[in-house]
Every structure is written in structure tokens, then in C-alpha cells.
Amino acid sequence: MRQLVFEIIKKALKKMDVKFDEEKIKSSVEVPKDFSNGDYAFPCFVLAPEMKMPPHEIAIQIREKIGNVPLELSDVTTAGPYLNFFLNRNLLSYELIKKIKKEKENFGKNTDGKSEKTMIEFPSPNTNKPLHLGHLRNMAIGESLSRISEGNGEKVVRANLNNDRGIHICKSILAYQKWGKGKTPTKKIKSDHLVGDFYVMYSKKEKEKPELENEAHLLLGKWEKGDKLTIEVWKKMNKWALDGFEKTYKEFGITHDKEYFESNIYKKGKEIILDGVKKGIFEQTPDGAVKFDLKKEGLGEKYLLRSDGTSLYATQDIYLAYLKQKDFNLTKSYYVVGNEQEYYFNVLFKILKNLNIPLKGLKHISYGMVNLPDGKMKSREGTVIDADDLIEKVEELVKKEISKREKISRKELEKRSHILALAAIKYMLLKINITKNMLFNPKESISFEGNTGPYLLYSYARASSIIKKSKKTGKINSEEKLEEKEIELMLKIKDFPGIVKKAYTELDPSVVANYSYELSKIFNEFYHSEDVIGSKKEDLRINIVNSFRQTLKNSLYLLGIDVLEKM
RNA sequence: GCCUGGGUAACUCAGCCUGGAUAGAGUGCCAGCCUUCUAAGCUGGAAGUCGCAGGUUCAAAUCCUGUCCCGGGCGCCA
Predict the structure, then answer these.
(1) Nearest nt to the A28 alpha carbon by C1'
(2) Which residues in window 405-464 of A are less than 7 A from strand B by Cβ?
(3) Has residue A512 got a pLDDT over 90?
(4) Whole-angstrom Cα distance, residue A495 to residue A189?
(5) Boundary residue ending a domain (A331, A366, A381)
(6) How far is residue A508's CA from residue A424's CA, in Å, rounded to a whole number?
(7) Which conformational region is residue A298 in: left (phi greater than 0), alpha (psi within -120 to 50 degrees), or beta?
(8) Which of A89, A425, A531, A556 is the most exposed place for a label (fewest CB within 10 A)?
(9) Chain B: nucleotides under 7 Å from a protein CB?
(10) Which residues of chain A (521-550) touch nucleic strand B at CB < 7 A?
(11) For residues A491-507, average pLDDT
């Protein structure tokens, strides 16, 4: 279409005997921000120096030379210095309606990435504390990017690395051994929360007694040597943590195709590092520690093993990279991890490259932190928004809202409040550009009005309700003209496949989130300005509502948000 | 100090990559709209030196340079 517009301009200019730079003209053709200015526009400024005329006159002259417009277009108009090209929007709308009717949940998808097999790793928690709001952002992003990649034809392996060993884990264990008194999870205390309580306890005690840090290191040494008693406690607490995570994943609606455990792979990582020392890639200091010199690349020195021989954070990722490739034969590998670890991933990828580990398409999906009004969340200090608590609290708020409006069965109330609460939380987390830090204000962020998840579900439920109540089948009679709001809505729907691609290239779900909102907003305007049921154009409008409903559903699917037929 | 992200309405954010038509949205505030498809909605209004200063351009929130302010990173922590 863009090409057609260009050809029309080119032809007119040739008639006028004007010299022009084809590439410059072509790249000037743009899509107006406001749909009332047409579907394509050409600003005539570029021609002013050559033609020695004011741009608005150039526009008028070109318009005259264009003469009758081809069938694909309905009109070409001038607006000051602009030439505005209008597609045959009526025709286009009918074609779109037919397309969506046929493609249904596949509308918007493409196969651009069909030769890719991508592993997306998220949220890779530490097993010393429960999941918090930061993990929810991570999971929302991980799941959404998985769906966006699949929507663009890729095969996706959702993976999770459980960081179940290391000094931080030993800290929870130490506190439990010292002050736990054999406590076990109860109905009141979820198992991963119990583990987290001991981690916080350790941090508090360490402030008074810094020597605890040495004890934790001794414990790590014992763990790495396989000390029976240590392993026993570790196994018990780890299971508590992992069982707790599993419940949270289920609540939040995410699953993994593959679970990796750091405790299973760190030893092999150590071997690779020591082998790297032999090959001269890494350097061993006199006290036995191993480091990697990246000063030339401006990344400083990175330690890979401690002088006591115990592993550091990077150890696991090294063997894991090898393992991922061996397990799945991937073409791409994404790590969904916060932006505070950008330096780490720079270094890691350099290490993997130097070791010739064949994992391809490495990418750190770096997302911004979730901050609170008083600053950063710190799990050590217990100033975190807990994932389970938040979900539960939002569900309670939703229940109150529903109960204000309608009396429904307990079961239906549970179902609706769960879906709505997740929509509210996920949308809140995904509507913000992935790279940006975001502010979570407990008082304001949980809202059900305006640009929120519930607004989107509400729009969807309204559309569903119309379709359910109408007796019309949606026969297509392409003689009927669409009203302005209907055109606007159909033009927005037409953008969806492009949005799916854009979110894929930018690897950012907020592209889809913002689109979903804009789409719903136009639908709500349409809903208020035009009656569907009982209207003379009921069949056409049912088709429009149907197209909207399907597109919004597809769009929300990419965000990992389920819809409700009634709310 | 070095690396890196940000600064757009009172608040939270789009827009910036790929420069164009009066800079958008939500919240909050003000004024309206429920006997009619769900008011978790819709309509209208007030509210902006797009951090600051230069530069490039017919045209700059958008590109370039400088500068100020805020966050994150630069651990034998994870």
C-alpha cells in the first residue's frame, strides 16, 4: 500500500516535470497519528527548495495531477502542506471481518520465527526466601515473552534455574539450626515463607554478631563436602522452598518445561573452570582462587572460584549453558533477570565465548526494578511485597467490588476474583516498558479503573454480553457503510498483527499492553455511541463486536491474561 | 572515578529507535450522563519552559554535543 502511495506521487511529479530524489520521497511517506488525516500522508516540505513554492501550494498542485484515485483508495485530500491518502476503509473493514472470522485465535500470529528454538529462563529464584513482587514482574515478562515468541512462530522452552545452593542458602540453614527449634510449616505459615523467615532472622542477628558470616562460610564448606547432617537440613528446607514456589507459580498461571537445579550442576561448572585454568583462559592466584581477566574489555576481573575452592554465582551458569544446548539444541537462549545484573551477564557471555560453549543467541532480558515509595525492596530487611500476600490481597479487593454489584455463588466469586486479580497485577506489571524501573505504590497501584487490567476484561465482558444477547448471526452485507467510530475501531484492529511483530522485535510486552488498552478504549467509545442490538445494522455491528472481542482476547493472551465472559 | 538507565501535566506513565499536522493517556480535581446492549463505563473542562544550554534541519520531546539532577552496577555476595 505504501508502495502504491509512492507510485501515485511519483507519477504526478513526473507529469509536473519536477526533479526529485526517489528515496527521499519514499521515506517521507508516513502514517498519520490521527486516523482522520488518512491512512498515509505525504508532507510536501521536501519539494519546496526544488519547486520554489510554499509546501501547501505544492500539495494542491500534486493533488490536481493525481486526478482520479485507484480502486484501493477512496480519496486523496490536501490539508495544508500535507497530502492525505485514504484507503477504501469500508472494503478494508469487511475483508478484516472475514479474516478474523476465519483465523480466530490465530489472528495476528505469523511464522517469521519458525526456524528458531528459544529457551526462556525465568524466574530462577533463590531457595532461601519466598517470591516477591520483583519475581512477579519477572514471571509476567517471562511468560509474556514466551507467548509473543510463539505468536511469531518460534518454539519456546520455558526453563527455570533453581538457585538452591550457596552462601545465602546456608544463612537460612544456619539460622534454622541455631534458633529453629525444629519448627515445620503449618497451615498458617506457607513452607517457603517459613524458610524466608529464617533468612531475615539471620540478617538481623548478623548485624549484632558479624562473626556469623564465618559460620555460614564454614557451613557452605561442609555442604560442598557433603556433610550428612547439613545435607539433611538443606534437603528439608529446600523442599519447603520449592513446594512453596510451585504453589505460587500455579496461582500466577505459569509452568515450566524444564527445571534445572544449581546443586546438580555446580560441580561440573567447577571442572570446566579448572579446565579453563589448564588451558590458560583463566588465572589461578597463589592462594588458589580462580579469576578471569577482562580488563582489556573494560570489565575488570571476575572471580570464578574462591580460594577455599567453593563455587561462586557464575560457576553454575557455565555448565548450565553447555547443558541447555545439549538438552534442547537451541538457536536462542534468553535469561530474564533484573537490570542490576547487566554487568554479570556481560561477563558471563564473554566467559562462555572464551570457553567455546556452543549456546547460541545469548541474550539477557534485562528488566527494571520494582521500587516502593520509600525506595528499594530488600528481602534481607523484610521490606518486600510478598507475591502470595499480594495476590491474596488483590483477590479480596476484587471480591468486595464484585459483591457490590452482583450476588453470585461462592465458586463463581472465587473464579472471577482470581482471574480479575491476576489481570490487575499482570497488566500493572506489563504495561510499563520492560527496561524501566517502576514504582509500586500499594495505595494507588491496585486500582480497577482507567488504564488497568479490569478495564480490559470489562470491555471484553461487555462485548461478550452483546454477542450472547443478540439473535443475529452476523451475515455480511458489504453494501452497508461503517460509521466513524466503527471505522476507527476496525482500523485499530487492523494494526494488531503489526503489534505482535513489534513486540517480538523489541522483546517488550508493554507494546501489546498499551495496544490492548487503546483498542478497548475505542471499543468503549463505540459501545456508548452506537446501539448494536435492535439497530438496523445489527448484523454488521455484531461482526464488528466479534472482531474486537477476538482481537482483544488474542492480545491479552500474549500478556498471559485470561478473560471473563461475565463480570 | 568508570560503565549504564532515566528526567514529558500534581502523581504514574505512552510517544523518542524510524524527526513532521494542535505533545497523549490514566489517576486525582471540576462539570455532566444510568426506565435503553454491564456506570469497573462515557462526555466535557482545568492542568505541560517535554531537566537546562547550544547545534543540525524547511521542521526537534524525537538526532548530535555539552551540562545538571536521580537510580542501578563496577564483591573471593547472589
Answers:
(1) B20
(2) 405, 416, 420, 431-433, 435-439, 441, 444, 447-452, 454-455, 458, 461-462, 464
(3) yes
(4) 48
(5) A381
(6) 18
(7) left
(8) A531
(9) 2-6, 11-15, 17, 19-22, 25-28, 36-43, 58-59, 71-78
(10) 521, 524-525, 527-533
(11) 96
Instruction: Give the pLDDT confidence of A62-75 residue by residue, as tens digits.
Output: 999 999 998 889 99
Kindly state the average pLDDT of the residues A5-17. Answer: 91
* Choice between A130 and A382, residue whose per-residue pLDDT is larger: A130
Q: Are residues A329 and A201 in the same domain?
A: yes
Give the CATH number for residue A510.
1.10.730.10
Nucleotide nearest to A37 (CA to C1'): B21
Cα–Cα distance, A207 to A302 (Å, whole number): 28
Percent of chain A with pLDDT over 70: 100
**Gap from A341 CA to B39 C1', Å:** 46
Q: Which of A163, A174, A76, A73 is nearest to A122 (CA)?
A: A163
Torsion of CA A163, A167, A173, A179, to 10 degrees: -140
Mean pLDDT of A350-371: 93
Higher pLDDT, A474 or A325: A325
**Mean pLDDT throughout A426-434?**
96
Do A19 and A126 belong to one domain? no
Q: Which of residues 110-139 of A touch strand B (CB under 7 A)?
A: 126
Q: How many domains, chain A?
A: 3
**pLDDT-based confidence at A23, cuts 50/70/90?**
confident
Distance A353 CA to B68 C1' (A): 40
Which nucleotide is closest to A369, CA to C1'?
B72
| pTM score | 0.95
Q: What are the C-alpha distances in Å from A303 to residues A161, A164, A215, A273, A402?
A: 21, 20, 22, 11, 55
Non-local (6+) Cβ contacts of A412 within 8 A are none
Q: What is the ipTM score, two decimals?
A: 0.96
Whether residues A36 and A144 share a domain: the answer is no
Same domain, A63 and A138: no
Using 50, 70 and 90 to split pLDDT, how confident is the model at A553? Answer: very high
**Strand B closer than 7 A to residue A403 Cβ:** no
Instruction: For residue A202, give its domain range.
Output: 122-381
For strands A438-439 and A370-371, give the pairing: parallel
How does the average pLDDT of chain A come out, rounded?
A: 93
